[in-house]
Write a structure and sequence with these properties.
By secondary structure, the chain is of the alpha/beta class. The protein contains nine helices and seven strands; from the N terminus they run E-H-E-H-E-H-E-H-E-H-E-H-H-E-H-H. The longest helix is centred in the middle third of the chain and has 28 residues.
Length: 266
């Protein structure tokens, strides 16, 4: 990353695996001071240990996006220790593998609580500190399923659609405060997101989808995200040929619905 993010304070959620973990390593190698968060303290400790010989530093701050009650206190603690937050990367989230007719409303709420309210709550808590510090950069992770519907992803897709509305509004309201905002739109990335996706019973899916297994690596995804952050992209597309579905949905919707209806959603 050359020295573009050197000595920046970067907060990454979802940092104990997948894209979040890869971003932690990339920023620490670039000399950043990274706050690594997830709801898994043991895995955060593993990630932090791997960073001990790199140029930057890591502080593990464990909390659960599903519980927003303590987020303001958590943010205040980070500010007290680090003095500022330059970049907030909302990577953490949970996916779904369940038909609408089988999904109880409680599961819709659970997914929305993590993906939308958890992300929004952390962003709202960080925002005043960024403004008082003269600006900052915030990114939220959506999905290509955040741009269109897809089988077995109803609540997941809805939560990601909601993030687009919130973060585009954030951009419009605070561009004069030097707050740069990006929405990250991953396609297929080879992570454990499908393994931990929630089924209709609320239990984990427990296996990697075939499409996920054929996706780009988390490291490649992190490279694409960092490139987009450097260029201050409002939307950062992450993935490979599957991203063509975004353009098909936009310009040839009839073809999109034919393709999406035939695709294996697993």
């Amino acid at each position: 990353m050359e020295n573009f993010f050197s000595d920046r304070v970067v907060w990454v959620t979802g940092a104990s695996s997948g894209i979040g973990e890869a971003l932690v390593y990339a920023f620490v190698r670039g000399g950043s001071r990274v706050i690594a968060s997830s709801n898994n303290p043991a895995e955060l400790a593993r990630v932090a240990e791997k960073c001990t010989t790199m140029a930057g530093s890591v502080t593990a701050v464990a909390f659960d996006l599903a519980d927003t009650s303590g987020i303001e206190k958590t943010v205040a603690g980070v500010i007290e220790k680090e003095g500022k937050i330059d970049i907030l990367l909302n990577i953490g989230g949970v996916s779904q593998r369940a038909l609408i007719r089988e999904t109880p409303l409680s599961l819709d709420r659970r997914i929305m609580e993590v993906n939308y309210f958890g992300t929004v709550s952390l962003t709202k808590a960080v925002l005043p500190y960024m403004i008082s510090n003269g600006g900052g950069q915030i990114a939220a992770t959506s999905s290509i399923s955040g741009r269109f519907g897809f089988p077995l992803r109803s609540a997941y897709s809805a939560s990601k659609h909601a993030l687009h509305g919130f973060f585009e509004t954030l951009l419009l309201e605070h561009r004069r405060d030097n707050i740069r905002v990006s929405v990250i739109i991953p396609g297929r990335v080879r992570t454990s997101i499908s393994v931990h996706a929630l089924t209709a019973s609320g239990t984990e899916h427990g296996k990697m989808d075939e499409g996920q297994a054929g996706g780009i690596t988390a490291e490649k995804a992190a490279e694409q995200i960092i490139r987009g952050l450097k260029r201050h992209r409002r939307e950062i597309l992450v993935g490979s040929k599957e991203l063509l579905m975004l353009w098909i949905r936009k310009y040839i919707p009839a073809l999109f619905f034919r393709i999406a209806g035939r695709m294996n959603p697993m």
